[in-house]
Amino acid sequence: xxxxxLANVNIPxxxxxxxxxxxxxxxxxxxxxxxxxxxxxxxxxxxxVSRHDCELFAIVDHSxxxxxxxxxxxxxxxxxxxxxxxxxxxxxxxxxxxxxxxTPNHTHLQIGMQLAKNGIHILMEKPLAPSAIECxxxxxxxxxKQVALLVGHHRRFNPYITAAKNSLFKLGKIIAVQxxxxxxxxQSYFLEKPWRSSKQKGGGTLLINLIxxxxxxxxxxxxxxxxxxxxxxxxxxxxxxxxxxxxxxDLVDEGAVLTLKFAxxxxxxxVCADNVTSPFLFEAGTGENPTIPFNDSISGFYRIFGxxxxxxxxxxxxxxxxxxxxxxxxxxxxxxxIPLDYREANHDLFGMISxxxxxxxxxxxxxxxxxxxxxLDHFINIINGDESIVKCTGEDALQALLCIDAVMKSIDxxxxxxxxxxxxxxxxxxxxxxxx
Length: 436
Known about the structure:
2 domains; alpha/beta; disordered N terminus; Dihydrodipicolinate Reductase, domain 2; Rossmann fold; nine-stranded mixed beta sheet; six-stranded parallel beta sheet
């Protein structure tokens, strides 16, 4: 049985402290393959080719986008991973060192297992997989193959989030949090990729978008223990979403309102919607996504309330009464700004330092580093052994997915739900045995 094989493998704990002896600096350029040529894959490919120490081996994509993306980056194109492996075997070419997977959610497990089986390090776009069992299976398989696994919750690298995390001590005891991710997705978004309208294939704003915010809230405040959720009214018709004419019940969610209870006692509320006209979302407030217009007047898409102060993001305003002997509603509240020093934005919370997005690029003082780039640099550092702690592990991604599962169960039952513990999830041993 596979479990006996797994017992002989040194599996790191949840902090995923990969020692430098496990991965080492390469004497040549790191070779990457990008799997998926949709919205995100080309962004990763662009940064890979910008680095002098990396090369883009190929694009893997079977869609109509594949040829043009491969041509743009002057690289090889394969429709499926087995085609790439066959090419390498036939031509006695070394497999790529690492892969970035930016494909529909339901494909993640099989693609990840194929890559790990061949010793290729993985940066997987979130969610790690559509189900908790699939996540745990891929996590343990990567450990058994000594393959680095980084999950693409890239907002953990955003300067707004690192500055907020480093400033939480100023708030005293964290009592509550309030947040929103609210915008309007156009019809073209769903027509471009029909899987986005399918529950079975991992569509819906709760899995595609809310999972980012739940990951960030847990990154800032620790694990979420209990959730209660109510769905928002659906606004889109079947013809707006899929040419197969899905029924109303088959259509993916368009958002929900949540109440949250964190393990540390903090409570919160969150509104997630992709069917409203609104600028109150992470991308609009931070300018992180180039496809969503930046709005520098946005404030309070997150508000974190503490006994000694309140922090508002992305305006980075700290409201406090530090000059008073005792906090009171009868006394004025002062405001100060939390600075975003981009020279310091790459310092992680474990005392490690990630380099600037590329050793070939130098930032001006007020220029925002791109979280996608910082994430890729961290991935490269892990592979080379320059960093030893993975900043978004498979377990972190599984924890976020378990929160989404609890949200879905709450919607189905109409009752609050406790979030399942990561440790209680078991892998698919049959699948592990199949891959060997």
